[in-house]
Amino acid sequence: MGSVRPSAMHLQGLCCAARAETHNAAMEMSRALRSLILFAALISAGQAVAAELAGAPITVRFGPEQYRATPSLWSAAATTGKLYVASTDGVLVYDGVEWTTVPLPVGVDATFVRKLPDGRIMVGGNDTYGRLEHDALTGYRFVDLLASSGLPEEQRRIGPVWEIVQTPEGIYIQAQHFLHLIPANGGATRSWSMGPDMRSVLPFGGDLYARFQNQGLGWLRDGKLQVLPDGEKFARVPVSSLVGWGGNRYVVAGNGVWRMEDSRITLAMPWPEPELPVYVTVPLDGGGFALSTLDGEVIIVDAGLRVRRRVKLSDQVVADLTRDNEGGLWAVTDTEVFRLALPSPWSLIDRSQGIRGLVYDAVEYEGSLWVAGSRGLQRLTAEAGGKVNAERLPWIPLEAYGLLADEHGLLISHREGLSFLERGQSKPKALIESQSMVRPLPLRDRPDLAIVSSEREVILLRFAGSTWTVASRWPLNGMAITDTVETAPGELWFADDRGAPQRWRFNLDSGERISLETFGPDEGLPIDGPDRPKLFFVDGELNAYSKGKTFRFVKDTGRFSEVPNPDLIALLIQPGKLSVVETTMGLFAITPRDLLHRPASTMAWQRVQISGWASTGYGLPRVSRGGVLRVPVWNGILQYAPDGPVAPVPALNVEFEQLLVFADDGSPRVGKMENGALQLSSGQPIKMRFALATLEPGARFRYRMSGVVDSFSDWADRDLSIRGLDPGEYLFEVEGELPSGRVVTPMRLRLLVTPRWFEEPFLRVLLAMAFIAAVIVASRAIGRRRVRRVVDQNRLLEQRIADRTLELERANARLGEMAVEDPLTSVQNRRALEQGLSREWARCSERGQALGALMIDVDHFKRFNDHHGHLEGDRVLIEVAALLRTELNQPVEMLARYGGEEFTLLMPGTTPDLAVRRAEILREAVERARVGVTISIGVAVVWPTLNESPTTLIRQADQALYEAKRLGRNRVVNAGA
Known about the structure:
It contains nine helices and 71 strands.
């Protein structure tokens, strides 16, 4: 399995012998022009040609802006809920929520990472290798195995590590200069010197194979190659891996896939090209494999040795592939990480297949996929070799909104009217002009009739002879149609964005409208408010969703009556934008952020589970005659076309990523649960980090605790701190959710909080009695002293009168100070800031100096107050102010409480770099202090002039602060960056 990129790709100039060898020209070709993402989908001959348009796998991409490290990546490995990526900065670890970087020893790149069959994570770098371990308290650490190997110094100068494999003998490490073996029996590490001819190390079936340039493919035993029968065929041909299934063994090489038998090796499958720059291979469940190339492709080969898909990911080398336990294939290029949902029935037709602009509708017609969208009308046709010909048709220059295809031809509604492309014709003819027409709606059981509307009228179309004609048309009289629902033959309901819904009845044979009825408050349907009723037809019943409630039309009374919201409504994120569509696959409920399916065989609604960029912006779905479901989304067409069985994804449970309990001195320990309970002492702080064992991004959590927070909190991130609980027993519940809608089992934990020794009832009684006795004794002593004190006070009276004037002067001075001091935090207040800003602005303008300001905001302070109370919130503000004041350069600088949880620091005579550095020092100080919060800081530095307002500086700093909060908080943003 796998290797890393060839030597020319190494940013540090390291020299390697890459496993997926190729000459320098091939490596240069791998950086050629970016191609479209193309697939070769083999679909049964009975389906329409348009169904052969295989979409791209649902893909999630991570670039430097996400993993926040030097964009120089090498290899990857996946475990349950974790992805490890070797990079120049060390090992990048992704857990579905965030990326962290685990550095290797100073100055060492991580060139290779691999999960061994026994679950260990091994890491290789330049002149080093070891394992990655995780501790709940200290996090990840690198354990250097080369340093403890006992090998002589010259045998530890191994160069970069390119492969790590495990066999029954132990762990083999292939490096540039040496091959090392860490024996499984615990013996001393063995070492063999290797020259540049050793190219690939390939584990298979418990044996270790290798390919040597000019020798071929064979067994590797005690550092020596024993060439296989026919193995010399690969003396000059790169080999990616050995794979096997169904009792067969195969060699994946640059000139094809070869069947390996005991006495010979024969070609089983040639590549479409004479030679393919193969690189890394990973096996797939049930047979077959995924292969990456130096040209930036990922190729999927099934168990029958057929190329199922070719995905062009990048112009860069796909340096490594690895699989997770959820049907995800991870690919690493020089600078990016991709997750491809494979195998998956869902795919995406997008820009890579030639689609341009937003998609509104798509239908199959005459062997092609026709797409209506913001760029007009497009036609996509599958060609030989899995290529797609995408053609933008010139007939519709502006937006195309809807399509209706049948055996007669293709109806096209667009911004300038309605056109009809008759079967066999090369150009459509105009049926209606100078009106913007919406998507045509065919009438149930009447293939010769269709309804279409514009902003001015509703039109009944009839097919007669060889074309569609206008049968009838009715003005809308100011109505703005948002939904059209057919409830019975000749009965249509229209939702009006400007008023109450209407029911129209027709004589379909004559085209005459029989009646028009409006249904508003008098008919039981409220229509006031910003959102008008949404109509949806389910199980023969017409429903309307309005003002958070569901109303059902009762035929007997001719009125709407309120009914309980159905389960469907509870599952929706945007129920006020609901549409329901009936297809041959069942019912679909759609909003821009929801796609729910109710199969025809069940009454249960289920959220369609799709991750990645295609999981939002849904349009109305269609099912083709070939059984392919297509749903317009914001960036293309989401396509459901099962190609064989799809393994179910593992069940998910809310778990603890971290559970820490803090002692009185602030030292943490790992909390241990027994029988679903956690033992605590009263007032003992705990810190929790929740997790789902998945690499799907976007996890959110909410929680509640009996007796403390009885209702669930808002959905939030995965971190929660509890500063301490009173003695008692609490039920703590945490729910999790993912954007794809996967089922997540909540976590329930009992918190058993025991009182401390001084909180026991018996001891409290004793302490109370002792306190009362002490009060009595103290009272008597005070009485004796009181007489003496009166005498002393008389003696001091004259002195006090003499000092009265001085005291009054000091009191007046103190009052003046209090007028500009914040009473809670003891820093300057808003009034003092405004005075100081005007003063410093004028002074800096006269001296030609810069004036800087830091706008400092306590992150998520409202949430902190809600969780911990306002007393704790006041304590946090006091502590944050104290931390900011410790870094204050007085009397030059001024720190003031701007209001609420915001502070402002004025810094005359600074520079942008110094201001940003000071801001980072303040942010890190608050983060290290463990006060329970972090801060975000906006930085602005200007050169004041007398014709500008001093508020310019505060406004710029405030805008930078807003950007810091938008980017995720706990960070510094410079307004001038």
